Amino acid sequence: MVFKGSPDPENQDIRKLAEEIINGQGTMTLATAKGDVAWAAAVYYVYLNSHFYFFSDPESRHIQESLASGQASAAIHAAASTWQEIRGIQMSGRIGTVSVGPEAVKVIRAYLKKFTFTKEFFESGQSLDLAAFTKRFRVRLYNLKPSLIYYLDNGIRFGFREKVDL
């Protein structure tokens, strides 16, 4: 069932709609499991080069479980006040650590640009690099490399969900 005023999925570029959600949001919910017990945690992220980058405590449950199992899933969604407005991303993949180097430099720059408030946690003139983040927040830099991504959009039709390659 397609609703009046809804975009026609045949004429829409689903990839562009997915990228709009990814670039327009700041948090994603990571989901992991150990045995038969699931867990979810929200993290701030930046999206670069087909990876979702985020900082987290290495001892956190979601990091420990995802690294042990080699599996994680995540969801990103925009705020919605009606069921027709529900749209977002569902994905699964692997979480890995990011070490000092060119990749980390690009991620830190993107992170500081997207989350400008982060600078408030550091002294003026302090070098804002991976070491500074690690020391200040006792976190490490991680990435989620998705192996499967779906875009969902009830504005197209109730329950619309399509696989997307980014």
Task: Tell me what the structure shows.
Helix content is 25%, strand content 36%. It has 166 residues and is an alpha+beta fold. It has one domain (14-163): Electron Transport, Fmn-binding Protein, Chain A (Pnp Oxidase, Chain A, Roll), CATH 2.30.110. Strands 1, 2, 3, 4, 5, 6, 7 and 8 form an eight-stranded antiparallel β-sheet that branches. The radius of gyration is 17 Å and the shape is globular. It starts with 13 loop residues before the first helix and ends with a strand. Residues 1-6 have low confidence and may be disordered.
Topology:
Elements: H1 14-24, E1 27-34, E2 37-44, E3 46-48, E4 51-56, H2 61-69, E5 72-77, E6 87-98, H3 102-114, H4 130-137, E7 140-153, E8 161-163
Antiparallel strand pairs: 1-2, 1-5, 3-4, 4-7, 5-6, 6-7, 7-8
